[in-house]
Specification:
The complex is a heterodimer of chains A (111) and B (113).
Chain A lengths: L3 E3 L2 E5 L4 E7 L6 E7 L6 E7 L4 E4 L2 E6 L4 E6 L8 E8 L6 E3 L3 E6 L1
Parallel strand pairs in A: 2-11
Antiparallel strand pairs in A: 1-3, 3-8, 4-5, 4-9, 6-7, 7-8, 9-10, 9-11
Chain B lengths: L4 E3 L2 E4 L5 E6 L6 E8 L3 E9 L2 E5 L6 E5 L5 E5 L8 E8 L8 E2 L3 E5 L1
Parallel strand pairs in B: 2-11
Antiparallel strand pairs in B: 1-3, 3-8, 4-5, 4-9, 5-6, 7-8, 9-10, 9-11
The chains are: A mainly beta (111), B mainly beta (113).
Chain lengths: 111, 113
């Protein structure tokens, strides 16, 4: 079945760039997503990329997709303390709207 | 435009009881899916509804069920609650399969004692 892997923890200093990585196994994924979850909250859609794209940029966020290696990354420029949260990578197959999630990467931003 | 609304936000039940959770999707969205989030298992897919029909189901026991109404609102029900059902239940809505955007609500946090 489909599987999504992420590193569990990342620590950066305020103002630095953060890069969160994700690998997935489903070669027929249509969309790949990044969600942010703060304590006690639901999932906030940060960005998503269609599988035929290599890159997508949205303000401080840059998503890179290497479909050959099934590797997805999220770069956050000028990371702020408010970016501290858990970031989930998710992939969506060809049928329906079902997502398969990674375990999440906890990003800790220190002043 | 209102987001995905889930009610109740918090609830406490005891083992053996049953619970019903509600989800109102974004206006115009016809697909509603449900996920269970626990510290041990992470985010797991429960089921998805589109135009009142369940079109995909995850690997959960029959105690977990759901339905969708003609206005796209959805409910999920868990019967004969077990301690392990304590979790954050998240609902997501999307416009249609070909549209990439998929938005989540704030979740319903269920505690089973």
């Amino acid at each position: 079945g489909e599987d999504v892997e992420q590193s569990l923890f990342l620590s950066v200093r305020e103002g630095d760039s953060s890069v969160i990585n994700c690998t997935y196994t489903d070669s027929s994924s249509t969309y790949l997503y990044w969600y942010k979850q703060e304590p006690g909250a639901g999932l906030q859609l940060l960005t998503y990329i269609f599988s035929n794209m290599d890159m997508k940029q949205d303000q401080r966020l840059t998503v890179l997709l290497n479909k050959k290696d099934k590797h997805l990354s999220l770069r956050i420029a000028d990371t702020q303390t408010g970016d501290s949260a858990i970031y989930f990578c998710a992939e969506r197959g060809t049928r329906y709207s079902t997502l398969t999630f990674g375990k999440g990467t906890m990003l800790l931003v220190s002043p | 435009k209102a987001g995905v609304t889930q009610t109740p936000r918090y609830l406490i039940k005891t083992r053996g009881q049953q619970v019903t959770l509600s989800c109102s999707p974004i206006s115009g969205h016809r697909s509603v899916s449900w996920y269970q989030q626990t510290p041990g298992q992470g985010l797991q897919f429960l089921f998805e509804y589109f135009s009142e029909t369940q079109r995909n189901k995850g690997n959960f026991p029959g105690r977990f069920s759901g339905r969708q109404f003609s206005n796209s609102r959805s409910e999920m029900n868990v019967s004969t609650l077990e301690l392990g059902d304590s979790a954050l239940y998240l609902c997501a809505s999307s416009h249609e399969t070909s549209d990439g955007e998929l938005f989540f609500g704030e979740g319903s946090r269920l505690t089973v004692l």
